[in-house]
Each structure stands twice: as structure tokens, then as C-alpha cells.
UniProtKB/TrEMBL annotation:
Belongs to the DNA repair enzymes AP/ExoA family. Residues 4-248 form the Endonuclease/exonuclease/phosphatase domain. One of its GO terms (biological process) is DNA repair. The keyword Metal-binding applies. The keyword NAD does not apply. The gene is xth. One of its GO terms (molecular function) is DNA binding. The active site is at 106, 147 (proton donor/acceptor), 248 (proton acceptor). It comes from Sphingomonas pokkalii. This is Exodeoxyribonuclease III. Mg(2+) binds at residues 7, 34, 147, 149, 247-248. The record marks 218 as: Important for catalytic activity. Keywords: Hydrolase, Magnesium, Manganese, Metal-binding. The record marks 248 as: Interaction with DNA substrate.
Amino acid sequence: MKIVSYNVNGIKARLERLVEYLTEAQPDIVCLQELKSSDETLPVAAIEAAGYGAVWHGQKGFNGVAILAKGQQPVERQRGLAGDPEDAHSRYIEAEVGDLIVGGLYLPNGNPQPGPKFEYKLRWMERLNARAAALLAEERPAILAGDFNVIPNDDDTFSVRAMAEDALMQPESRARYRELLAQGWTDALRTRFPKGGVWTFWDYQAGAWQRDAGFRIDHLLLSPQAADRFTGAGVDKAYRGREKASDHAPTWVTLR
């Protein structure tokens, strides 16, 4: 079973690339982020024509997450995170696909920092960590997959110096990510590549793709029951180099 996290950076602008990926790679489950589209205008028909059922949590022009499943309809469990009734951002959706619980997320960027956006990021991470702990308490195979907007380690970026002031790499962001892992979640890509040096994002600016100046912010975290079925992880990097591609590459884990 191949489970993918894919920040498409606008599903309408990237629909051709997404359908292309679904057709060629045939992943079993795909967590999408940054749809930038309301529920009413999402291209559901094109996704279904590619052979996928889906649950969506859209938002006009910003954010937006979805879970796609090949040949079946995901069963939605939850959308949004508890703890902040004022938060109107579409950043979390949770569903069951077979025996697997899937949480798809698009964590706040947090820039500029310090400031309100960074404070929102940290509060959101605390709410995510609370939901993650509740999932672990179910003692079932579960995965949290998405754009976490956190560079966990120095070797997860092309340049520590270039990213030093960025919200993605601040000690507070990293600390909350480590707290999440300490609950018992397994970072699949880190497990497969323990020495780092694997990127999932390359900015459109300054020739980042051409220079391979990227970093790792797309993560797939496995509960102990899912980690027992872990067989591999990687990044489908070539898709980042295609015409009108997203600035993220599909990032994946395989389970028995």
C-alpha cells in the first residue's frame, strides 16, 4: 500500500499534473494540501474519473486539504481540530480507508516570525499534538500525512544559514514536532534516510529547483501499529521538474 502526501499548490492550476501522477504512480491513498478552492468548485469529477474516491475540506483561495483513495470512498471521521472555535482555516481532515486511520494536514507556515502568524502556528501544533495523542490511544494503524511546514533537523535543508530566521526552522517549531514524535509516532522518511539530505520542497524563486536547494517539510508519521507494517519511503522527485509543477514533490510511504 502506497500512501502519498502531496501539496499541489492550487488544485485547479495543477489538476493536469495531479491526474497524471494518479494515473502513472497509482498510489492507494493520497493526502492533498493547499487546494486553494472551495468545496463547491473542487474538480471532483476529474478525480473520480481517475479512479479515486475523495473527502474534501476546501477553502476559497487558501489552504484546503483532501484525502483520496483508489477504488473506494474514504469514510470521513473529522474535519478541523478542536480547541479554537475561531479558527476558520481548512487545514485538517481525517478519514478511514480500510483499516487505516488517515489524518491529512496543512500546518500553518508561521512567517513572518515573531508575530501573530507564528503564534498561530504554535497554537495549531499544540492542537494537532492533542489530536495525535487521541489517535494513538485508539491503538489502531494510523498515519498523519501532510505539509507540516517544519524542517525538523539541520540536515533536512540545503542551507541552515539561509533558513535560520524562517518560522519553519525555529526552536519552538522543532520542539513541538519532537513532542509529537515522542508520543510514539515514526517519521517514515527519516527512518528510511536517517542521515537526511532528502528534500520534498523547492521554491520557485532563485533557481532553487535547478540548484537542488530544497528542504524537507512534507512528513508521513506512523502510529506503532502502522509502523509495524512499514516497508519503505521516498520522494517522487521527478514530478517537481515537470512543466507547471507544484513546488512540492509527492512524498510517500509503503506499508504491508
